[in-house]
């Protein structure tokens, strides 16, 4: 149960006051929007929270506050070595893959960040979006063929996760099938969204090993892929820099996009506003994709930013070295920007791809949209009478503070003879 941790309050000298809320439990996992409303009502736009192991942090809930944090790198920076809680962090802390400093674009700042992000941007600009859509349709057709004859499927594992995984690794120069690819994606899932019994630190280590192998292969035999373009960019990134930045690219392309697909399919199949037009309805698919980014964004929270010096935010005193978790989902539904409690899905000013200099580098959001839109449209075209196999309230969400995605999405349809 998500609870107020007065009895387990952080030790003296901790920058987070008593009354901090543990971000855990069934309430958070299944209905995080209710928790955000409670936190906003009790604490305002910036709430004191406790992460795994009762490590203190601040959850930034307000849309203006998230925009302010992400637009002022001189106050809230990305280098996690500033954190004032490192002495409390054990080597097997579950969130270490998120916050442990790496020579990655994610943790760079200033001119170095612009250099590294520029390499990624130019490498991604080399992806032909029409060709990507064709490849996604080919992958989709192959995946659908694997279950079309049975009249039933579990779409999260058989389709929503599988398609962007294959598209992402193929863009980077790996085969879209095979044991290495399957292991890579499984380890990426564990490192980003660990289930009980998983070891995210060990999984992240294995991801690095596989990407290093890919970089060595592309050094020797470059091809028309993102990895090769990064390796041969005039900026002259080292192999290890390319490895770390590729991990960021593949992780961002796979897990969030998979949940974007799954959350959109759930909306289309369970919301009566879309039911009449879902079959081949390109306009309704586009509306559903955008509405999901507002109301069920795949990346719920992002850790994080670290205060460069003592400052104020949302009426809170933020001390140098404090960790701020960006509450993207909470900010997207901030009543300050939607006073009538109606989110205008036609608006694309959501924060689902971040904001400021550290937002997803262009054209990553466009490529993610190509993958997600093609996945949803192809499935609905091939299986036009697709319906959920369970009642909407029986669907459950993954137990994750960071990602918003279904555990399973079982469906039924008329079997199709291939």
UniProtKB/TrEMBL annotation:
Superkingdom, taxonomy of origin: Bacteria
Output the Gene Ontology terms for molecular function: heme binding; iron ion binding; monooxygenase activity; oxidoreductase activity, acting on paired donors, with incorporation or reduction of molecular oxygen
The record's section on InterPro entries has: Cyt_P450_B, Cyt_P450_sf
Query: Family assignment?
Result: Belongs to the cytochrome P450 family.
Name of the protein: Cytochrome P450
Q: Which organism is it from?
A: Streptomyces echinoruber
